[in-house]
Amino acid sequence: MRLQLALNVTDLEAAVAFYSRLFSAEPARRRPGYANFAIDEPPLKLVLFETGDGAAGTAGCCGAGGTINHLGVETETAAQVVDAERRMTVSGLETTGVDDALCCYATKTETWVTDPDGTRWEWYVRTGDSEVLENVVVASH
User: Fold this and answer.
1) What is the CATH number of the domain that holds 80?
2) pLDDT at site 53
3) SS3 for the chain, per residue?
4) Predicted TM-score (pTM) of this structure
């Protein structure tokens, strides 16, 4: 597993250049208004959503550049997502339930929870590619 940090940025090209130098890594995926890095050290999934003029959209949750879009944990299996959702629910946290979804140019199995200050957390496993940026639920578990 690795932590995911999804940031809103006003200038995707400038952000990609900065984070490429900061982590000595190139984006694993690039699409209009979107880039993500799969960084080995430290283990981090860094996702950038462009929010400035002309941006393609921001997966249904935008904010000003320089703000957190959402946080998450990328898992290796769907079973780990199901286990995390069960653990959170048993502990009294309200989740979205486990869904198969298209989002961020990927197919995923995911669950979401929101912290007391409104920061959204996603537990997910990427299961394939898609051409969809916005979050679309295709099946619920």
Assistant:
1) 3.10.180.10
2) 55
3) CEEEEEEEECCHHHHHHHHHHHHCCCCCEEECCEEEEEECCCCEEEEEEECCCCCCCCCCCCCCCCEEEEEEEECCCHHHHHHHHHHHHHCCCCECCCEEEEECCEEEEEEEEECCCCCEEEEEEEEEECCCCCCEEEEEC
4) 0.80
